[in-house]
Here is the input.
Amino acid sequence: MFTLSIDFSAADIREVIGAAASFFVFLSFFETDMTKLRVFSITSNVLFISYAVSRHLPPIWILHSALLPLNTYRLIQLKGRVKESHKIHAAPNH
Here is the structure.
């Protein structure tokens, strides 16, 4: 029988960061709210950058270093649209 066991007591902090990064990617696939999705993605990008730099994994840190500003920009765009939408809906009808 196959048994999966993970001994976190022996885990290096880098592995914990990598696991947390993976968890936020996993969460983002279930999120339907775009703001939360972007926040989860940004969090995973930061964690993956930390993990990849500590483990000397250039392809991973390059990818997440490129995705971080994109996710941040999209979140800022989304926040601007939400503000604009609130202004439109708050305006008195003529």
Observations:
- Residues 58-90 form the longest helix (33 residues).
- Residues 5 and 21 are 20 Å apart (CA to CA).
